[in-house]
Amino acid sequence: MAEDLYPVPESWAADARVTAEGYATDYARSLDDATRFWLERADSLEWVSKPTVADESSFEEATFGVKWFADGVLNVSANCIDRHLATRRDQIAIIWEPDSPAADPRFITFTELHAEVCRFANVLKAQGVRKDDRVTLYLPMIPEAAFAMLACARIGAVHSIVFGGFSPEALAGRITDCDSRIVVTVDEGRRGGKTVPLKANVDAAAKLVTCLDTVIVVRATGGGVEMQPGRDIWYDEAAASVAAECAPEPMNAEDPLFLLYTSGSTGKPKGVLHTTGGYLLWASYTHACVFDCRDGDTYWCAADVGWVTGHSYIVYGPLANGVTTLMYEGVPNWPSPARMWQVVDRHKVTQLYTAPTALRALMKEGDDFVTGTSRASLRLLGSVGEPINPEAWRWYHDVVGEGRCPIVDTWWQTETGGHMITPLPGATALKPGSAASPFFGVEPLLVDAEGKVLEGATEGNLVIARSWPGQMRTVWGDHERFFQTYFSTYPGFYFTGDGARRDADGYWWITGRVDDVINVSGHRMGTAEVESALVLHRTVAEAAVVGFPHEIKGQGIYAYVTLNAGDPPSDALRKELVTWVRGEIGPIATPDAIQFTPGLPKTRSGKIMRRILRKIAEGDVSSLGDTSTLADPSVVDDLVANRVG
Ligand code: WTA
Predict the structure, then answer these.
(1) Helix, strand, coil: what percent of the chain each, to 5?
(2) Given the CA of residue 422, which atom of ligand 1 is nearest to it?
(3) Contact predicate 109/340, CB 8 Å
(4) What is the arithmetic mean of pLDDT over 556-585?
(5) 3-state helix/strand/coil string of 327-344
(6) Residue with the nearest Cα to atom 3 of ligand 1?
(7) 471 closest CA partner among 74, 174, 58
(8) β-bridge mates for residue 299, sequence order
(9) Residue nearest atom 8 of ligand 1, based on CA coordinates
């Protein structure tokens, strides 16, 4: 439909970094002449020793591995800081906007960033942290989170950030999995006018682990915390006695940079490992092409550093490109639904990158909160984390961007390190809800359930046919799981876990997860994780969890729970189970609905038929399909009759 195609605005067509012709030519080259293409692109980084090889990866079982620029040597923090000092010493690197609009923002220049990161690195070193050691960061959205990340990168330590919304149990699991002996945290975090007891959570987690011997505590709110002598250190006290100079450690391109735990279909969250050279090139090059920042711009990615979006697009991508990046401590709707747009005006934000769930929540509050602000500085809008529905897309485009800003709807994953399918602002005519075209070097394909490659306009499972520099390298401690999870379903391809459609114009539309991962407010949650948490409760015999469409969150969490004999269902127990899951995993795993059921729909071999559970949760009970293979088909009648919602 012609009216649904938004052409590249003239202001962008004139001098964009990538034009429509440039995209076509370079995309073809990135696949046909990949080695030369990527070695040229790698020149945008500062290397201690330049790589002479590019992609040496294989998705085949016998030769399996992901490897890029393997003979290159560089340091990520030197790329994000030191190399800008000659030309950008006094430019703001990080703008920090506090939770409360009444508090003062912080402006950190590249010179100051250099000193802060060196000091942080020296504090870590003084605590015995060495190259390859894992450092767990459990921090809110304060500049020290970026300092700590870059400090780890500077000395070759591997950071593992745990989102501040995760519970002590979840934190403990992640500390133990990567055998991390040190945690960096704060006294308390601040979000939406409330405080979050992060240090107290670390204390609780510490009781569940054996490897932890040091906790560095950044003073943020000044709220009282207990310090355990011999284990806990105040950051400001330690930092007072170290130098503000620390030479960056030369790292091999394939040395680990960070670990980030993410949810999958089965089992515990996996530690996704990213390495140094390929990841930094991917984060910086995608950031440069997709957001197209210019000198003087203020770029704002409204994610949290606890997620991959914060890693690649608050810290590493923009700073590697010498761009001023805004870090916001708070939430989109506090103290009012106008807050995001007020922050845009306060700091003259030029590029804004946020999630559809935030847009849907703000859209519901009415346009006045938006139109009461100027937003004249905005030139580009971005979306990430989940499919954006056309209604939210149009509101973002027409109301927030007043029709003048292109929207880049970027599809990617923790595993991909950076953008994979996305429009480019100066090159791509937009369709609301479509992620449009593959980024350079990305070769997406659609396959059917048997793995047969599908051609033309069609829908299927989304796979990627070849490696790209930002691809994850392994699952921490379990390389076999890496292969099994992503490369065994469709041999020879990386399987994304997403479904997608390609239309007659070749545009890509991501339709959502096709595995047992649900996407709640743009956050990934494994149904298996929520089920494991539920069955740990003394009253629960069995649990099955599915996603269902949710107006604001995209997907909500629906749990079917069978209680032990003698434990009667009640509203009080329902509340208790909700609190229980929040305690085991964190608030992001809060079930939206719990249905008590005497039994679950199982096949005669004992397999739960999730298809039926999904349909009932969606409220689509008229088309449950064939239930004759169930061991006890009458279970379904009870499930339908007692549906919650
Ligand atoms: C979903 C977040 C549609 C998708 C960067 C993917 C999206 C999962 C989009 C990864 C988008 C992310 N359109 N779906 N633009 N971006 N997703 O690892 O299902 O937290 O597999 O990475 O989010 O979530 P993750």
Answers:
(1) 35, 25, 45
(2) 15
(3) no
(4) 97
(5) EECCCCCCCCCCHHHHHH
(6) 387
(7) 58
(8) 325, 351
(9) 413
Cα(411) to centroid of ligand 1, in Å?
6
Of residues 419, 157, 163, 126, the one with CA closest to residue 276? 157
- Residue appearing with tokens 């608030």: 587
Distance 184 CA to ligand 1 centre (A): 28
> How far does the centroid of ligand 1 lie from the alpha carbon of residue 413, in Å?
5
* DSSP strands (E only) in 166-249: 182-186, 189-191, 194-196, 214-218, 232-234
Q: Which residue has the tokens 């349909």?
A: 615
- Tokens representing 387 are 């499919």
| Token code pair at residue 470 | 């930002």
Known binding residue 130? Answer is no
Compute, in angstroms, the gap from residue 554 CA to the centroid of ligand 1. 12
Looking from the CA of residue 415, the nearest atom of ligand 1 is 18
Q: For residue range 391-422, what is the model confidence (pLDDT) as tens digits?
A: 999 999 999 999 999 999 999 999 999 999 99
Write the ipTM: 0.99
Number of the ligand 1 atom closest to the C-alpha atom of 262? 18
Buried b (16+ CB within 10 A) or exposed e, 340-361: bbbbbbebebbbbbbbbbbbbb
Cis peptide before 335 (omega within 30 of 0): yes
Please provide the DSSP assignment of 304-328 as one string.
-TTSHHHIIIIIIHHHHTT-EEEEE
What is the pLDDT at residue 552?
95
Count Cα atoms within 13 angstroms, Cβ side, for 558: 21
Query: Strand 508-513 relative to strand 351-354: parallel, antiparallel, unpaired?
Result: unpaired
In sequence order, the 6+-apart residues with CB closer than 8 A to the CB of 417 are 274, 278, 279, 282, 283, 308, 312, 469, 470, 471, 472
Strands 517-520 and 523-526, sheet pairing: antiparallel
Q: List pLDDT tens digits, range 299-356.
A: 999 999 999 999 999 999 999 999 999 999 999 999 999 999 999 999 999 999 999 9
Pairing of strands 194-196, 189-191: antiparallel
The alpha carbon torsion through 258, 262, 266, 267 (nearest 10 deg) reads 60
CA pair distance 74, 83, nearest whole angstrom: 12
Give the C-alpha separation, 426 to 19, whole Å: 5
Quickly list DSSP for 383-417: EESSPPPHHHHHHIIIIISTTTS-EEEEB--GGGS
User: Cα(124)–Cα(512) distance, rounded to whole angstroms?
Assistant: 41
Q: What pLDDT, in 10s, does the model give residues 444-465?
A: 999 999 999 999 999 999 999 9
CB 470 within 8 A of CB 282: yes
DSSP string, 416-462: GSS-SB---TTT--B-TT--BSBPTT--EEEE-TT-PEE-SSEEEEE
- On whether the CB atoms of residues 141 and 304 are closer than 8 A, the answer is yes
521 is in an annotated binding site: yes
